[in-house]
Amino acid sequence: MEVFTAELLLLCLAAFGAGFVDAVVGGGGLVQTPVSLVVLGGTHPAAAILATVKVPSLCGTLLAARQYLRKVPVYRNLAVVACSIAFFSAYSGSLLVTRVSNQFMKPVLLLVLAAVALYTFFRKDFGQSLQGKPPRQTLLRNAALTSLVIGFYDGFIGPGTGSFLILAFISLLGFDFLQASAHAKLTNIATNLGSLTLFLIKGKVLWGFALPMAAANALGGYLGARVAIARGNRFIRVFFLVVVLATLLRFAWDVFR
Fold first, then answer.
1. What does the pLDDT read at residue 185?
2. Mapped to the 3 state alphabet, what secondary structure does the chain carry?
3. Mean pLDDT in residue range 20-31
4. Which of 105, 106, 176, 202 is deepest in the core (most CB within 10 A)?
5. What is the pTM of this model?
């Protein structure tokens, strides 16, 4: 019982940290998933662990999204399109990961993340204010493409999904960091639901760990969203850079170890 309690406490601390990071800039899986794999890897299969962490991720994102929606305007039609596509795309990605390895994607992601970090660092004005938005049809098309690609990525690999969504919403839709974060949270809810639906059908979730972690993640998400909204775009940009660099190091470790 003491071992179980110690494991659960560590997992809940990781879930809280993941919820906070996810609410600000995404990338909470960078905290939660590795800790869960280390703590539970000796006694549970990887698929069950990956399924389990989707529950706290969903709960934290839901609470963070609620905070954003109270303060940040959202384009409803765009959100409906993005979320609908993201759900089915993430479901497909999770279905594929139960059948094939996703390791071949790690070197590609390493290069992508390096480019994202450099671009964000040198573009000081990136995401600091609303840019000129494309025409409505272009806006919806870009949102659909973003949700299709990143939704599949979340189901197939996962870490950094929120950060990629924010980057895409700023680059392709002209949002600032706050508005991109609000839309990213809604889309990330859909990707988590898509993946979790697949894992629930397959009966993979370890509920004894998932539910306490969900409460911790939700608390972290609530606090993270409040801090991000209060501190604004400049704070989110710095936090975004830190999370992208951390994700870069994580994938570098996976590729070169």
1. 92
2. CHHHHHHHHHHHHHHHHHHHHHHHHCCCHHHHHHHHHHHHCCCCCHHHHHHHHHHHHHHHHHHHHHHHHHHCCCCHHHHHHHHHHHHHHHHHHHHHHCCCCCHHHHHHHHHHHHHHHHHHHHCCCCCCCCCCCCCHHHHHHHHHHHHHHHHHHHHHCCCCHHHHHHHHHHHHHCCCHHHHHHHHHHHHHHHHHHHHHHHHHCCCCCHHHHHHHHHHHHHHHHHHHHHHHHHCHHHHHHHHHHHHHHHHHHHHHHHHC
3. 79
4. 176
5. 0.81
